[in-house]
Amino acid sequence: MTLLRKPWAWAWIAAVAVYAVTIAATAGASAAGLAQAAFTFAAFSVIVGLGQMFVITLGPGNVDLSIPATMTLAGTVALKFMDGADDRAVAGLAVALGIGAGVGLLNYALIKALRIPPIIATLALSFIVQSTAIWTNRGIRIKPPESLAAFSTGNLWGIPNLAIVAGLLTLAAWVLLERSAWGRRVTAIGQSPAAARRAGIAVDGVRLSTYVLCATLAGLCGFLLSCFSGGAALNMGAEYLLISIAVVVIGGSSVAGGNSNVPGIWGAALFLFLVVSMLNTYGFGAGPRMILTGIIIIAVILAASLRGRGAEGG
Amino acid sequence: MTRPTLSAAALGSALAAALSAAALPALADTSDKRIALSNNYAGNSWRQAMLTSWETVTKPAVEAGIVAAADAFTTGENSATEQAAQIQNLILEGYDAIVLNAASPTAINGAVKEACDAGIIVVSFDGIVTEPCAWRIAVDFREMGRVQVEYLAGRLPEGGNLLEIRGLAGVFVDDEISAGIHAGVEQFPQFKIVGSVHGDWAQDVAQRAVAGILPSLPEIAGVVTQGGDGYGAAQAFAAAGRPMPIIVMGNRQDELQWWKEQKDANGYETMSVSIAPGVSTLAFWVAQQILDGREVPKDLVVPFLTITQDTLEANLETTPVGGVANVEYTLEDAVAVIEGAN
């Protein structure tokens, strides 16, 4: 089975297994509803996960911890800017993306100019960004324009619109990573920055664009999430820091960088949503639920890495 | 030292305030006393409203010369060590009273004890401390859970299935409200909790969690909540195309707004209960009263702010967009709470 040797296969197997167990609780009656919910919420994880994946691919120490704060700032400012007016929807999206890109630029400015490690730089900046979000809106929840709210909660032939957006982005990310010169450069830097530099790759330019891409996707995710949930909230990005890293790792990408894959992110995002649904459905308390979530995640990563090693040996 | 000079006008208004408070025994003068607010977190709408209320009430009080200062301090992260350090700073700065919303009921007891030993009055509220030398203005969270089931029992005498949305796992408040809800279900056994999810008091987290469990649940008659999660739950029910159950709300503006829309559209009926963020101003007046020499019991209880079908419009009108329904307490309210506990 060559499919099983793919590093992303295990996240998908786990997602399908957990899905089957969950709908078994209702003898299949919940199949359609659960799948729709899973694809909707996985879409958010996928969007931030794709950005984080490119950053992690850059190699050891590269991670963007400012994703939650960027989501919050982009969501709050964009909604405040649109103020519920349908004709400002496109401009609002531009505002969110612009904020994301700006945060990405600042992130890399700190990393490069001040020589601060990415973990510290992005964390420090996230405090500033989060405080700016608090300062700009004081916790005010402004409703999204009607058209955007309808779009983000709607679906096309049963497929949630958000899942379609995330799917298109995934396709673009796959082309970028696997088929474009830029993606090859990102991977090359992750494998050896020194070798990449000698090979004539503009390392700084590639790293800068990666951080900007990641933060822009975070801005987009914040925008969509605040339209979806009827307004931006100051704590709305909090969950997505861990999720963005988890979907990359569970999806079978190397946490040390230099070796990433795109399909695994979808498998992992679906899996992470479904595993909580499964344990909720079977009525586990918060304590056992978190322990079981941890154990299941470790098991999936272990299965993927053992299988990967076996494949290399064979 | 910045010692405010007492103008006749300030004295007069202080006197008037004291007199209006049902002829309180003003044993000591508090016009030269300085009160600090130590707050551990500001990252949600409730806390933002809490800080705004503090400013709204204390500023006129300072201008009227009732107290010399009422400064608010917030630590950046929700961290007990940082708050302990902040309290030590406040001791050094020579405040006469510290009003405290604590990051932990026990972890800053050391710093609180230091403050008491330095002769400083410490009044904790909402997030209370267990250090015996401090005053506690606590919320009866169990009762807040129980009244929800009691209300549902009034609305649905036949009972039915309940979905419980809990708060943040591992936090004291979450355990207490949930215990109250389960006590309520024991009291009204016609109800059965068929599902329980953690919504972290955030609409989007609640929406996500409810959407995940809803497909596998039978018909739901009521949703019991902890506040900040009712609107998310409603959206999840609407998205799944399920009949809308009675969702108990938690006084957030988005929840009240949604309730109003439903009420106008189809006569939707529910109730909403939470604690007003203005409880910080209650703590302010209690601290002022203690400084004034009044005997105040160490344990006080915060009144609930309950919104019913009839008071919905009035409350919605006064609640800022994105905020929480609020009341700011007066000196008289504080005296009433103190006397209620005696």
CATH class of the largest domain in chain B: Alpha Beta
Structural class of chain B: alpha/beta
Let me know the number of strands of chain B: 12
- Which value, in Å, is the CA radius of gyration of chain B? 22 Å
CA gyration radius of chain A, whole angstroms: 20 Å
Q: What's the order of the H and E elements of chain B?
A: HEHEHEHEEHEHEHEHEHEHEEHH
Biggest interface reads: A-B, 45 and 42 residues
First-to-last CA distance of chain B: 38 Å
Average per-residue pLDDT of chain A, rounded, comes to: 85
Continuous helix count of chain B: 12
Predict the CATH topology of chain A. ABC transporter involved in vitamin B12 uptake, BtuC
CATH class of chain A: Mainly Alpha
Proportion of residues in extended strands of chain B: 15-25%
The assembly state of the depicted protein chains is heterodimer
Molecular structure report:
The complex is a heterodimer of chains A (314) and B (342). Chain A is mainly alpha-helical and 314 residues long. Chain A has a single domain (2-313), classed as ABC transporter involved in vitamin B12 uptake, BtuC. Helices cover 75% and strands 1% of the residues of chain A. Chain A has helices at residues 2-5, 9-24, 31-57, 67-82, 89-113, 118-137, 146-153, 161-179, 181-191, 193-198, 203-228, 240-250, 263-281, 286-313; strands at 155-156, 159-160. The two termini of chain A are 12 Å apart. In chain A, 53% of the residues are buried. With 342 residues, chain B is of the alpha/beta class. Chain B folds into two domains: 8-139 and 276-303 and 326-341, Response regulator (Rossmann fold, 3-Layer(aba) Sandwich), CATH 3.40.50.2300; 141-274, Response regulator (Rossmann fold, 3-Layer(aba) Sandwich). Helices cover 44% and strands 16% of the residues of chain B. Chain B is built from twelve helices and twelve strands. Chain B has helices at 8-20, 45-63, 80-92, 109-117, 141-155, 172-187, 203-213, 230-239, 253-266, 279-291, 312-318, 331-341, and strands at residues 34-39, 69-74, 97-101, 121-125, 135-138, 160-166, 191-198, 222-224, 246-247, 272-274, 299-301, 305-307. Chain B has a six-stranded parallel β-sheet, with helices on both faces. In chain B, helix 5 (141-155) packs parallel to helix 6 (172-187). The radius of gyration of chain B is 22 Å and the shape is elongated. Residues 1-6 and 18-27 of chain B have low confidence and may be disordered. The chains are: A mainly alpha (314), B alpha/beta (342). The A-B interface holds A 22-23, 25-26, 29-34, 37-38, 40-41, 127, 130, 134, 137-142, 153, 225, 228-231, 233-236, 238-239, 273-274, 276-277, 280-281, 283, 286-287, 290 and B 42-49, 52, 76, 166, 169-170, 195-198, 200, 202-205, 207-209, 211-216, 231-232, 235, 239-240, 253-254, 320-323.
